[in-house]
Amino acid sequence: MHSHHSTPHAIRAARPESWLRPILFSLAASILFAGVLAHRTAQAQGASLFQGADLKLGEELITQHQCAQCHAEKVGGDGSAIYRPLGVIANAGLLRGMVEQCNSALNFQMFPEEVTAVAAVLNRDHYRFKD
Ligand code: HEC
User: Fold this and answer.
1) Quick one: which atom of ligand 1 is closest to the CA of 98?
2) Which residue's CA is the closest to the ligand 1 atom numbered 15?
3) For the chain, does the N or the C end have fewer beta carbons within 10 angstroms?
4) pLDDT digits over 1-56, tens only?
5) 101 C-alpha to center of ligand 1: Å?
């Protein structure tokens, strides 16, 4: 039974496009690296309110509190369309205030420095306020 299927499998495994894979992989890796560098630069120019914020903690809290899941229910996609840098929230202080408002309204019980960390991540990834 199984021997009937072994030949086509062997042929498929040796398909010619496989030589392309390492090239595509390194291309993807360098694009990713450029993205990381761009983020670093944006961070360096970021709002003073978020200077020294714990971005890794912010990312963890955003995952933990399922911010994106709820936002996605409202606006679809990955939920990031809820973040409107050209809307009412027009600077770093208002952004942090909005996160604080969600924090109390949804009873996340985040500490002030955690609210700052979350807002700093949103600023880095979506709002990009300089002040
Ligand atoms: C239970 C649902 C829900 C959860 C969980 C949630 N949000 Fe929201 N959030 C909303 C809704 C709804 C809005 C849109 C309010 C409006 O403009 O009508 C919103 C709006 C926002 C905005 C304002 C966007 C803008 O530019 O106007 C920010 C910032 C925000 N949320 C941050 C967060 C963060 C950070 C978390 C997680 C720590 C979070 N939210 C968790 C429902 C949620």
Assistant:
1) 29
2) 82
3) N
4) 554 555 555 555 556 567 666 655 565 665 555 554 455 544 445 799 999 999 99
5) 9
